[in-house]
């Protein structure tokens, strides 16, 4: 790695899921990394342990001796550190641009899509590691087997999530690009679904002639892109027309079993640690990438059986006869439905108590009606206040309205309970032996999940 005079790199919002992984790779490459984030979390604590200088407040003094400043999409131009950097002619670059620079000297393998990016990225990384391809990995979640959000590999491959939320994924130029799903999301940026489709099409057509696009054929929006893709395309999914398909799907304990076919030729069986039918498609994506890189199927299958998962993706924090506690990042109606369906498949005879914290006022407003029917598999639903993620309140957009709508759509057991401090007292009143408690959301509800484990310790 080239280390010139540009050595001190500062991240504003370093605790964010997209930022911490890049910071970790740069630390491992020998750069002096610092960062600021108002809140402390596992990512900031881990980066501190690696030697990063983390400040938990924004201040102009944090950036004055830095050579480069990296900002996430959540940081506004009027941030005090951004202003100070520009006043002192310190380059300020977006997160996606820094990721693009890291990818420039390698063969990039990106995973994009509105759902399943983190899990699919983890699965692809697991497969390539088993094939001794030693990739560099930058991911939005914490892979349990890696112990972090990133890993510095020695090979020519770099695996990363591609963030479509603000169009910044167009800065990336991958060799292989996986797209998992394309749903109406991030409409505050795209405005229309067609604009979003156009952006994905532009992204896929940046692939070089020797690369390939991997698309889930089960997604009708992705299927509609096929006529416009000018590069080699490989499809996967549960539909019979896909190149890579899965048959004989069943859940066995905490594993998902299925048979993989490539263009009607049987490749073999997989017993995957990624739970749920939605993760069958994500697993097929990893199989397809591994096969594209000339890995043999038995090696791929063995690696997937040992997949240990990602934090906050159907993460079972406690499991006993009396109580099971699961933490999950699901915050979009499609993700919620898939997660609850998986829970019902794994524990068909247990009562499912769901705690949901909506994420962002803009998302809740745009998807409000879709949320009304997303919780049909929850036996009990507790709704928390919306986690703002830096947004200002929007009139008439609140969890009370969400609770009313879920009831109007026929759910018999839904209750708005306010803040996270209300959860434990409410659960103490309502829990029954054998219940499964699921905490869902992209805000700070993950912290609550761990408090539940401590409080309801058998």
Task: Explain what this protein looks like in three dimensions.
- This protein folds into 3 domains: 8-93, Rossmann fold (3-Layer(aba) Sandwich); 106-305, Mur-like, catalytic domain (UDP-N-acetylmuramoyl-L-alanine:D-glutamate ligase, 3-Layer(aba) Sandwich); 315-455, Alpha-Beta Complex (Protein-Tyrosine Phosphatase, Chain A).
- Helix content is 33%, strand content 25%.
- The chain contains 15 helices and 21 strands.
- Helix 3 links the parallel strand 4 (68-71) and strand 5.
- Helix 5 (117-130) crosses helix 10 (297-305) and helix 12 packs parallel to helix 13 (399-408).
- The N and C termini lie far apart (50 Å).
Could you outline the blueprint of secondary structure elements for this entry?
Layout: E1 8-12, H1 17-28, E2 32-36, H2 42-49, E3 53-55, E4 68-71, H3 80-87, E5 92-94, H4 95-104, E6 107-112, H5 117-130, E7 136-143, E8 148-151, E9 157-161, E10 176-179, H6 187-190, H7 193-204, E11 212-216, H8 220-223, E12 233-237, E13 244-252, E14 255-262, E15 265-272, H9 277-292, H10 297-305, E16 315-319, E17 323-328, H11 333-346, E18 352-356, H12 361-372, E19 380-384, H13 399-408, E20 414-418, H14 423-430, E21 435-440, H15 445-455
Parallel strand pairs: 1-2, 1-4, 2-3, 4-5, 6-9, 6-10, 7-9, 10-11, 11-12, 12-13, 17-21, 18-19, 18-21, 19-20
Antiparallel strand pairs: 7-8, 13-14, 14-15, 16-17
Helix pairs in contact: 5-9, 5-10, 9-10, 12-13
Summary tags:
six-stranded mixed beta sheet; 21 strands; Protein-Tyrosine Phosphatase, Chain A; UDP-N-acetylmuramoyl-L-alanine:D-glutamate ligase; globular; alpha/beta; Rossmann fold; 3 domains; ten-stranded mixed beta sheet; 15 helices; 458 residues
